[in-house]
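ok so for the tutorial part 2 we go from a plain amino acid sequence to predicted structure tokens. step 1 is just haveing the sequence, like this:
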Amino acid sequence: MKIPLESVKELRKITSASVSDCRNALQEANGDIKKAVGLLRKRGLELAGQRQERIAKEGRIEAYVHTGNKLGVLLEVNTETDFVAKNSDFSQFTKDLAMQIAASSPSYIKKEDVPREIIEKVKDKELFFKEHCLLEQPFIKDPNITIKDYLGDLIVKMGENIVIRRFVRYKVGE
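step 2 — the prediction. this is what the tokens look like for a chain of 174 residues:
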């Protein structure tokens, strides 16, 4: 199937993937852009999994204070190089993440961080993870993707391992 150049450009604009990756995804999805986005996202998460072993010792501390100064977040996100840590896309990601934490008040970064004794007490584990684990939450700016998807997309775009290391959420009176 011949893929129109306009479709490749549109998919590239959406995903920031390479031209060849976009073309291959569109061919595999028979020209369906939504399916191609899903395929690229899935590949991105697989690639992110492969990169998790690489050491991320650079990064950025993000601070967010909500209007009224009664709610604040401190967040550490690490990457492999200082070059990526200074990138505007990485900076936007950390700002979005700090705002996400302020808005949704997660308790953990990922499912694996939840203590076993807490999981055993929960009836609906899937709902619990979506509410309390940052990576499982729908992104507040685009509820069609999770924070895990957003992170995977950024890892593919930057070509480096990116790790959400830790966060603290402060609220006056708590």
